[in-house]
Amino acid sequence: MTTADHATALDPRFYPYRADIAADWLAGQVHAARFVPGKMTQVRVGCTALRRSADGRASRDSDLLWGEVFIVYDRQGDWSWGQNQTDGYVGYVPSSALMPLREPGLASHEVCALRTPLLPQADLKSAAMDYLHLSSRVQVIERQGDYLEIAAGGWLYAPHLVPLTAIVSDHVATARRFMETPYLWGGRSSFGLDCSALVQLSLARAGRAVARDSDIQAKSIGTPVDEGVAAASVGDLLFCDGHVGLLSAPGMLLHANAYHMAVAEEPLPQFIDRIAARGLEITAVRRPQ
User: Can you give the CATH number for the domain in which 138 is found?
Assistant: First the structure.
Protein backbone atom coordinates (compact mmCIF):
# COMPACT_ATOMS: atom_id res chain seq x y z
CA MET A 1 0.00 0.00 0.00
CA THR A 2 1.41 3.37 -1.01
CA THR A 3 0.94 6.80 0.45
CA ALA A 4 -1.72 7.36 -2.18
CA ASP A 5 -4.04 5.08 -0.21
CA HIS A 6 -3.99 7.63 2.61
CA ALA A 7 -4.06 10.76 0.49
CA THR A 8 -7.10 12.83 -0.33
CA ALA A 9 -8.76 11.78 -3.60
CA LEU A 10 -6.50 12.34 -6.58
CA ASP A 11 -3.94 14.34 -4.64
CA PRO A 12 -1.35 15.18 -7.35
CA ARG A 13 1.47 14.58 -4.86
CA PHE A 14 0.60 10.89 -4.99
CA TYR A 15 -1.32 10.38 -8.23
CA PRO A 16 0.70 10.71 -11.47
CA TYR A 17 -1.48 12.84 -13.72
CA ARG A 18 -1.18 16.09 -15.65
CA ALA A 19 -3.42 17.66 -18.28
CA ASP A 20 -1.27 16.20 -21.06
CA ILE A 21 -0.41 12.77 -19.65
CA ALA A 22 -1.33 10.37 -16.86
CA ALA A 23 -0.60 6.85 -15.68
CA ASP A 24 -2.72 4.28 -17.49
CA TRP A 25 -4.15 2.99 -14.21
CA LEU A 26 -5.83 6.38 -13.75
CA ALA A 27 -7.90 6.07 -16.94
CA GLY A 28 -11.49 6.90 -16.13
CA GLN A 29 -10.51 8.71 -12.94
CA VAL A 30 -8.84 11.84 -14.32
CA HIS A 31 -8.85 13.88 -17.52
CA ALA A 32 -5.65 13.74 -19.55
CA ALA A 33 -4.75 13.93 -23.23
CA ARG A 34 -3.22 10.44 -23.07
CA PHE A 35 -2.66 7.59 -20.66
CA VAL A 36 0.58 5.65 -20.69
CA PRO A 37 2.12 2.64 -18.95
CA GLY A 38 5.10 3.46 -16.78
CA LYS A 39 8.68 2.32 -17.19
CA MET A 40 10.30 0.84 -14.10
CA THR A 41 13.65 2.40 -13.25
CA GLN A 42 15.91 2.51 -10.23
CA VAL A 43 17.85 5.33 -8.60
CA ARG A 44 21.58 5.03 -9.37
CA VAL A 45 22.88 7.89 -7.19
CA GLY A 46 23.07 8.29 -3.44
CA CYS A 47 20.49 11.06 -3.28
CA THR A 48 18.71 13.19 -5.86
CA ALA A 49 16.04 15.85 -5.51
CA LEU A 50 12.47 15.16 -6.62
CA ARG A 51 11.33 18.52 -7.99
CA ARG A 52 7.97 20.12 -8.70
CA SER A 53 8.85 20.88 -12.31
CA ALA A 54 11.53 20.01 -14.86
CA ASP A 55 13.89 22.71 -13.65
CA GLY A 56 16.92 22.44 -11.39
CA ARG A 57 15.77 25.62 -9.61
CA ALA A 58 12.25 24.31 -8.96
CA SER A 59 11.05 23.52 -5.45
CA ARG A 60 12.47 20.34 -3.92
CA ASP A 61 9.42 18.35 -2.85
CA SER A 62 11.35 15.27 -1.68
CA ASP A 63 14.46 13.21 -2.32
CA LEU A 64 15.01 9.84 -3.92
CA LEU A 65 17.62 7.55 -2.39
CA TRP A 66 19.89 4.94 -3.92
CA GLY A 67 18.07 1.83 -5.12
CA GLU A 68 14.53 3.17 -4.84
CA VAL A 69 12.20 2.17 -7.66
CA PHE A 70 10.87 5.08 -9.70
CA ILE A 71 8.19 4.58 -12.37
CA VAL A 72 8.75 6.99 -15.26
CA TYR A 73 5.68 8.15 -17.19
CA ASP A 74 7.23 10.94 -19.25
CA ARG A 75 10.61 12.37 -20.22
CA GLN A 76 11.18 16.06 -20.93
CA GLY A 77 14.72 16.66 -22.15
CA ASP A 78 17.02 15.69 -19.32
CA TRP A 79 14.16 15.19 -16.84
CA SER A 80 11.95 12.23 -16.01
CA TRP A 81 8.48 12.60 -14.48
CA GLY A 82 7.08 9.77 -12.45
CA GLN A 83 6.40 8.23 -9.05
CA ASN A 84 8.62 6.94 -6.24
CA GLN A 85 7.47 3.48 -5.19
CA THR A 86 8.74 3.82 -1.61
CA ASP A 87 6.23 6.46 -0.59
CA GLY A 88 4.21 7.23 -3.72
CA TYR A 89 5.57 10.74 -4.24
CA VAL A 90 5.26 12.18 -7.76
CA GLY A 91 7.69 14.62 -9.35
CA TYR A 92 10.61 15.29 -11.67
CA VAL A 93 14.15 13.91 -11.33
CA PRO A 94 17.21 14.15 -13.59
CA SER A 95 17.12 11.21 -15.99
CA SER A 96 20.85 10.74 -15.38
CA ALA A 97 20.03 9.72 -11.78
CA LEU A 98 18.06 6.69 -13.01
CA MET A 99 19.03 3.33 -14.47
CA PRO A 100 17.01 0.39 -15.83
CA LEU A 101 15.44 -1.63 -13.05
CA ARG A 102 17.49 -4.58 -11.91
CA GLU A 103 15.52 -7.69 -11.07
CA PRO A 104 13.20 -6.69 -8.19
CA GLY A 105 13.64 -8.27 -4.81
CA LEU A 106 17.39 -8.86 -5.02
CA ALA A 107 18.38 -6.31 -2.37
CA SER A 108 19.98 -8.12 0.54
CA HIS A 109 21.18 -5.32 2.83
CA GLU A 110 20.45 -1.74 3.75
CA VAL A 111 22.61 1.10 4.96
CA CYS A 112 22.49 1.50 8.75
CA ALA A 113 24.95 4.41 8.92
CA LEU A 114 23.67 7.95 8.43
CA ARG A 115 25.75 7.88 5.23
CA THR A 116 28.62 5.82 3.90
CA PRO A 117 31.04 6.34 1.00
CA LEU A 118 30.74 4.18 -2.08
CA LEU A 119 34.30 3.28 -3.03
CA PRO A 120 35.70 2.00 -6.35
CA GLN A 121 37.89 -0.51 -4.50
CA ALA A 122 37.93 -2.30 -1.16
CA ASP A 123 40.40 0.30 0.06
CA LEU A 124 39.66 3.08 2.54
CA LYS A 125 42.12 5.36 0.72
CA SER A 126 40.28 5.18 -2.61
CA ALA A 127 38.26 8.25 -3.62
CA ALA A 128 34.54 8.06 -2.86
CA MET A 129 32.35 7.81 -5.96
CA ASP A 130 29.18 8.74 -4.06
CA TYR A 131 27.55 8.51 -0.64
CA LEU A 132 24.71 6.17 0.27
CA HIS A 133 22.28 7.14 3.01
CA LEU A 134 20.38 5.51 5.86
CA SER A 135 17.81 2.95 4.64
CA SER A 136 19.23 2.74 1.10
CA ARG A 137 19.04 -0.87 -0.09
CA VAL A 138 21.74 -2.75 -2.00
CA GLN A 139 22.51 -6.22 -3.30
CA VAL A 140 25.74 -7.56 -1.83
CA ILE A 141 27.64 -9.95 -4.11
CA GLU A 142 31.09 -10.35 -2.57
CA ARG A 143 33.14 -9.68 0.54
CA GLN A 144 36.77 -8.64 0.71
CA GLY A 145 38.05 -8.00 4.20
CA ASP A 146 35.99 -5.24 5.79
CA TYR A 147 34.27 -4.30 2.53
CA LEU A 148 31.26 -5.58 0.60
CA GLU A 149 30.87 -5.27 -3.15
CA ILE A 150 27.40 -4.38 -4.43
CA ALA A 151 25.85 -5.49 -7.70
CA ALA A 152 25.50 -1.95 -9.06
CA GLY A 153 29.27 -1.48 -8.70
CA GLY A 154 31.47 -0.28 -5.89
CA TRP A 155 32.36 -1.24 -2.33
CA LEU A 156 30.83 -0.32 1.02
CA TYR A 157 32.25 -0.66 4.53
CA ALA A 158 30.68 -3.83 5.91
CA PRO A 159 29.72 -2.50 9.39
CA HIS A 160 27.68 0.21 7.65
CA LEU A 161 25.33 -2.42 6.21
CA VAL A 162 22.86 -4.77 7.87
CA PRO A 163 20.57 -7.49 6.49
CA LEU A 164 17.10 -6.25 5.58
CA THR A 165 15.69 -8.11 8.57
CA ALA A 166 17.85 -6.20 11.07
CA ILE A 167 15.59 -3.43 12.35
CA VAL A 168 15.98 -0.90 15.17
CA SER A 169 12.69 -0.78 17.06
CA ASP A 170 13.59 2.39 18.99
CA HIS A 171 12.72 5.02 16.39
CA VAL A 172 13.55 7.84 18.81
CA ALA A 173 17.13 6.56 19.05
CA THR A 174 17.35 6.56 15.27
CA ALA A 175 15.93 10.09 15.05
CA ARG A 176 18.42 11.31 17.65
CA ARG A 177 21.28 10.17 15.40
CA PHE A 178 20.31 13.03 13.07
CA MET A 179 20.93 15.69 15.72
CA GLU A 180 22.30 18.91 14.19
CA THR A 181 21.65 17.71 10.64
CA PRO A 182 20.73 20.82 8.60
CA TYR A 183 17.07 21.50 8.03
CA LEU A 184 16.25 21.26 4.32
CA TRP A 185 12.77 21.58 2.90
CA GLY A 186 12.07 18.37 0.98
CA GLY A 187 15.36 16.81 2.12
CA ARG A 188 15.45 13.16 3.03
CA SER A 189 19.02 12.37 4.03
CA SER A 190 21.75 13.30 6.52
CA PHE A 191 22.87 16.00 4.07
CA GLY A 192 19.62 17.80 5.00
CA LEU A 193 16.07 16.80 5.82
CA ASP A 194 12.70 18.15 6.92
CA CYS A 195 10.39 17.27 9.79
CA SER A 196 8.36 14.55 8.08
CA ALA A 197 11.46 12.93 6.55
CA LEU A 198 12.99 12.60 10.02
CA VAL A 199 9.88 10.68 11.09
CA GLN A 200 9.76 8.63 7.88
CA LEU A 201 13.42 7.57 8.02
CA SER A 202 13.36 6.80 11.75
CA LEU A 203 10.31 4.58 11.37
CA ALA A 204 11.77 2.96 8.24
CA ARG A 205 14.66 1.62 10.33
CA ALA A 206 12.03 0.22 12.68
CA GLY A 207 10.49 -1.67 9.77
CA ARG A 208 7.61 0.75 9.29
CA ALA A 209 6.81 2.24 5.87
CA VAL A 210 4.97 5.53 6.39
CA ALA A 211 3.81 8.52 4.38
CA ARG A 212 6.17 11.27 3.28
CA ASP A 213 4.29 14.44 4.30
CA SER A 214 3.20 15.47 7.79
CA ASP A 215 -0.45 16.11 6.86
CA ILE A 216 -0.80 12.51 5.66
CA GLN A 217 1.27 11.15 8.56
CA ALA A 218 -1.14 12.87 10.97
CA LYS A 219 -3.99 10.80 9.55
CA SER A 220 -2.29 7.48 8.94
CA ILE A 221 0.57 6.55 11.30
CA GLY A 222 -0.32 4.20 14.12
CA THR A 223 -3.25 5.17 16.32
CA PRO A 224 -4.47 8.54 17.58
CA VAL A 225 -3.95 9.54 21.20
CA ASP A 226 -7.33 11.15 21.68
CA GLU A 227 -6.43 12.71 25.04
CA GLY A 228 -3.78 14.81 23.30
CA VAL A 229 -0.47 16.12 24.59
CA ALA A 230 -1.25 15.43 28.24
CA ALA A 231 -1.41 11.70 27.47
CA ALA A 232 1.57 11.56 25.09
CA SER A 233 4.29 8.99 25.75
CA VAL A 234 7.91 8.90 24.66
CA GLY A 235 7.98 7.97 20.98
CA ASP A 236 4.63 9.54 20.15
CA LEU A 237 4.37 11.94 17.22
CA LEU A 238 3.07 15.47 17.81
CA PHE A 239 1.56 17.41 14.94
CA CYS A 240 0.66 21.01 14.31
CA ASP A 241 -0.19 22.68 11.04
CA GLY A 242 2.56 21.69 8.57
CA HIS A 243 4.88 20.19 11.17
CA VAL A 244 5.67 17.03 13.13
CA GLY A 245 8.06 16.14 15.93
CA LEU A 246 8.76 13.21 18.25
CA LEU A 247 8.36 13.20 22.01
CA SER A 248 11.93 12.10 22.74
CA ALA A 249 11.73 12.20 26.55
CA PRO A 250 9.11 13.44 29.01
CA GLY A 251 8.55 17.10 28.15
CA MET A 252 11.07 17.12 25.28
CA LEU A 253 10.46 17.46 21.53
CA LEU A 254 12.91 16.22 18.89
CA HIS A 255 12.30 17.63 15.42
CA ALA A 256 13.83 18.91 12.21
CA ASN A 257 12.72 22.52 12.12
CA ALA A 258 13.26 25.87 10.46
CA TYR A 259 13.53 27.75 13.78
CA HIS A 260 16.86 26.06 14.58
CA MET A 261 17.50 25.27 10.89
CA ALA A 262 18.56 21.83 12.10
CA VAL A 263 17.40 18.72 13.89
CA ALA A 264 17.15 19.84 17.50
CA GLU A 265 15.75 18.73 20.84
CA GLU A 266 14.02 21.32 23.00
CA PRO A 267 11.56 21.57 25.90
CA LEU A 268 8.04 20.90 24.64
CA PRO A 269 6.52 23.87 26.54
CA GLN A 270 9.00 26.15 24.77
CA PHE A 271 7.84 24.85 21.39
CA ILE A 272 4.16 25.15 22.34
CA ASP A 273 4.65 28.77 23.42
CA ARG A 274 6.51 29.61 20.22
CA ILE A 275 3.82 28.25 17.90
CA ALA A 276 1.07 29.79 20.05
CA ALA A 277 2.56 33.19 19.25
CA ARG A 278 1.78 32.36 15.62
CA GLY A 279 -1.75 31.24 16.38
CA LEU A 280 -0.93 27.54 16.13
CA GLU A 281 -1.35 24.58 18.46
CA ILE A 282 -0.71 20.86 18.57
CA THR A 283 -3.63 19.38 16.68
CA ALA A 284 -2.88 15.65 16.77
CA VAL A 285 -0.86 13.08 18.71
CA ARG A 286 -0.27 9.64 17.23
CA ARG A 287 1.36 6.54 18.64
CA PRO A 288 3.35 4.62 16.00
CA GLN A 289 3.09 1.22 17.73
Answer: 2.30.30
Report the C-alpha gap between 27 and 167 in whole angstroms.
Answer: 39
Number of domains in the chain: 3
For 75-124, write each residue's pLDDT tens digit: 999 999 999 999 999 999 999 999 999 766 789 999 999 999 999 999 99
User: Do 275 and 175 have their domain in common?
Assistant: yes
